[in-house]
Specification:
Blueprint: E1 6-12, E2 24-28, E3 31-35, H1 38-51, E4 64-73, E5 86-87, H2 94-108, E6 117-127, E7 131-138
Parallel strand pairs: 4-6
Antiparallel strand pairs: 1-7, 2-3, 4-7, 5-6
Length: 140
């Protein structure tokens, strides 16, 4: 029996807080243009750099499940906790954060189109080991 492809990895880092919602808007020649501001451009470049080594040799076909654990370092004002993984209930919100991340995964060829992502699980936590944990799995 053939098993569905699965990719799991963890990127130790301080996750960027920029989201795809922070784009600028300008008008030129009567047309409205959107553009990436510095933080959005830097975050997108960062995602390309850290995700590229984990991309599959061929895009996953069919429906895909995406699980992301975003771990931010505890703020300096927070006392060192005895247990890791307290829920992060501050900005950026999950959906806006993950949109840019998903778009970069599409650009890199994890799948053909981000419409294939049918199941998304996102957790946001404060953690002593900051980073981004990712699992991509083909659904049957």
């Amino acid at each position: 029996m053939k098993t569905a492809p699965s990719i799991t990895f963890f990127v130790p880092c301080v996750p960027p807080t920029a989201t795809s919602q922070g784009k600028g808007i300008a008008t030129r020649g009567g047309k409205v243009w959107t553009y990436q501001k510095g933080p959005q451009r830097e975050a997108e470049q960062f995602y390309h750099t850290v995700l590229a080594p984990h991309k599959p040799s061929a895009p996953i076909a069919g429906p895909v499940a995406l699980e992301i654990e975003i771990r931010w370092p505890y703020p300096k004002s927070h006392k060192s906790p005895s247990a890791d993984g307290h829920w992060k209930v501050t900005k950026p919100d999950s959906v806006n954060w993950v949109k840019m991340f998903e778009d970069v995964m599409t650009d890199l060829g994890f799948w053909g189109d981000d419409a294939q992502v049918c199941l998304t699980v996102i957790s946001r936590k404060w953690h002593n080991t900051p980073g981004i944990g990712v699992t991509v799995e083909a659904l049957q």
